Every structure is written in C-alpha cells, then in structure tokens.
Amino acid sequence: MVNEKPIIAVPMGDAAGIGPEIVAKLAANGFLERYAKPIILGDQRVLELGKRIAKVDFDYHVATDMREAVAHDGLTLVDTQSLDTADLKIGVISGVNGKEQGDRLVDCIGYCNEGLIEGFCFAPLNKAAMKKGGYDFPSEHELFAHYYGIKEHYGEMNVMEGLWNIRVTSHIPLCEVSKNINEERIMDAVTLGYNTLKRVGIDQPVVAVAALNPHGGDNGTCGREEIDIIQPAMALAKEKGMPLIGPFPSDTLFIRAFNEKFDGVVTMYHDQGQIAIKLKGFAHCVTVSAGLPHAITTPAHGTAYDIAGKGICKTSTFEDAYKIAAKMAITDRSIKVR
User: Fold this and answer.
1) Which residues, in sequence order, are CB contacts of 250 under 8 Å at separation 6+?
2) Residue 244 lies in domain
3) pLDDT at 2 exceeding the cut of 70
4) How far apart are CA 91 and CA 82, in angstroms?
5) Cα(295)–Cα(328) distance, rounded to whole angstroms?
6) From 86, 152, 189, 332, which residue has the greatest number of CB atoms within 10 Å?
C-alpha cells in the first residue's frame, strides 16, 4: 500500500438502525478521513437517508466498484444498489436488511483478501435480522471465520479506555460455562489476547485472569476450577512467555484493572467482563474481531432501534472503533514489511 493512511471500508450496518446516521455524521465532520482513507460501502439511497436523518451534508465520490474507489482521492462510496429505502421500516427487524448486512461483510472479507482494503469498521448490526436474512451464525465473528476459512484461534475482544477483554467462553448459556472451561480453551484465549495486544503496539502486555467462582473458589471450598484448571493454564502460559497475574475474584478484578492500568483481562464467560466494561464506559466500548488476518472492529452497542431515525445518536463508540481499526491496519502493514 502506498498510502500513509490505511484504507478502511465502512459498511453502514443495519439500515433500520442508527448505522447510516452515524456514518453520515462522521463523514460530514471529516472524522473518517482524519485517521484513514475511508470507503463507505452500501446503497447510496441508505447513505442519503442517513444524511437526511442526521441533518448533515457533504460531498463524496460514487464508485461502481472497490477498485475505482481505491483509486479515487477523497471520501468515496461504493454504491452497491442493493437496498431500496422506499420499503425500509426504521426500527424494525428485517430479513432483507439482515441479508444486506451479511452481504457487505462478506464483500469486505473478499476486498481484504484481494489486498484492496486493509480492514473494515462496520456500523451496528442486528444478529436476528442477519439470521432471518440467511446468515445463520451465532454472531458476526463466526461468519468472519467461516468466510476466511479459519476454524480456531479467533474470537471477540472488547476494548474500553485502553483495557482489552478476551473471554474463554462467550455466546453459551451460563449453566454450560463450567463444563466448557479447560486448560486448552484458556490457553487459546490467552494467546489470542496477547497476540492482539501486540498487534496494537503493546510490546509487553500486562494481562490479568478472572476466577470463575465467588471469592476465587475460597481455596477449593467454593469450587475447584481455579485450582484444577485456571492456575495450571496460567503456569503453562508463563512457560510459553505469556506471564499472567491472578486469578482474581471477578467482583474486584475490574476495580484493579482500571486502577492499576492492566492492558488486558481474561474472563471466563461473556457477562463477567461485559457488565464491568459497559458499566464503566458504555459510550466507548468497542468490539474487535481478534485472530483474523485483517483489522475488523465495530461499536459494542447495538442498532438502537428505539432512537433510530431521530438523529440523536452519539458517534463516540464508532470513533473509537474506527481509530482502533486504523491502528491495527498500520501495525499489520509494518509487520508485513518486516
């Protein structure tokens, strides 16, 4: 890539949600061009709708394909002509919109693999809509892995104010968490976390591990996972050059994480980390698809159907996600040069 700034695609997400208006606001104030060469991806009618809702205006070039967009200087839209806003119902789950969301993500993977773009930051999706639209995956992360042909060592990480969270288990019922925790899964999460932290420029990450049980198991009297599984996995990680601290009870872990400036936290299940991070700063929580060949990020919040179409959505989380995507893409570029 000859551009100093990375080329980042910006799919507009669920057209019935706040995605189009977020993208329009950030295109209008120049934010997208500040950190990368942005290429908005989707139907021009959706972008124009986003402009009307956000009450903003800006100029952009309309390209018929990604190669034309990459060659053009300045803000560009690849017009897919794939979603007619005349039939769009704001705030309503739709299989048509869900198919559009999935199609654009698959497009981005293809563009990344062709070397046309260096990553993408997508506006909020709706998983139920995507499933109705034919993309029947637990989340977009499994969709990405499927289309990349990756079967392991990938997953979701969340970032808030510089603190990264990786989970050993994710989208499974709480009653199944304990039986899905083992040394191999913990090592996978730890390795993925370390590799991703280094990918954003942290050479020696400080990573803490959460206990599973109340009070960290109380020396085995309130559960033995810490003794039988978590601590042996931590010892193995140290042997492999990934020293960890903990395991700490989850009710105090994030107090320490924010006060002591840890770089990352490995949690045992979804809400163990999500509740703490979103409570601390919901307006700045970013989701990163870790372990994939290219930089892929999105806001951790959803489509906000309740406020979609009102023009009142905030853009702070998308801003954080976009900056992380750009930083990861630049780091990936430097690694390839080496």
Assistant:
1) 210, 211, 267, 268, 272, 276
2) 153-291
3) no
4) 19
5) 6
6) 189
Contact 268, 167 (CB under 8 A): yes
Residue 3, pLDDT > 70, answer: no
Residue matched to tokens 């107090």: 255
Instruction: Give the CATH number, domain containing residue 258.
Output: 3.40.718.10
Question: Which ranges constitute the DSSP H helices of 72-132?
Answer: 95-114, 127-132
CB atoms within 10 A of CB 27: 25
Q: In this predicted structure, what is the pLDDT of residue 4?
A: 86
Task: Determine what percent of the chain is predicted with pLDDT higher than 70.
Answer: 98
Tokens of 226: 């810490």
| CA–CA separation, 76 and 82 (whole Å) | 17
Record the tokens describing residue 36, joined without a space: 């990368």
In 200-269 the beta strands, taken as DSSP E runs, fall at 207-210, 244-248, 264-267
Closest CA to 267 of 184, 205, 209: 209
**Greater pLDDT, 201 or 235:** 235
Whether residues 221 and 278 fall in one domain: yes
Instruction: Give the confidence band of 155 by pLDDT, cuts at 50, 70, 90.
Output: confident
Please report, for residues 12, 164, 296, the alpha-carbon distance to residue 155 in angstroms, rounded to integers and kept in the order given.
Answer: 22, 13, 11
pTM of the model: 0.88
- Count of domains forming the chain: 2
With b meaning 16 or more CB within 10 Å and e meaning fewer, what string describes 173-200? eeeebeeebbbebbbbbbbbbbebbebb
* Same-domain check for residues 144 and 2: yes
pLDDT of 168 above 70: yes
What does the pLDDT read at residue 1? 42
Does pLDDT of 149 surpass 50? yes
Q: Are residues 187 and 61 part of one domain?
A: no
Say whether both 266 and 309 belong to one domain: no
Please tell me the number of Cα atoms within 13 Å of 220 on its side-chain side: 4
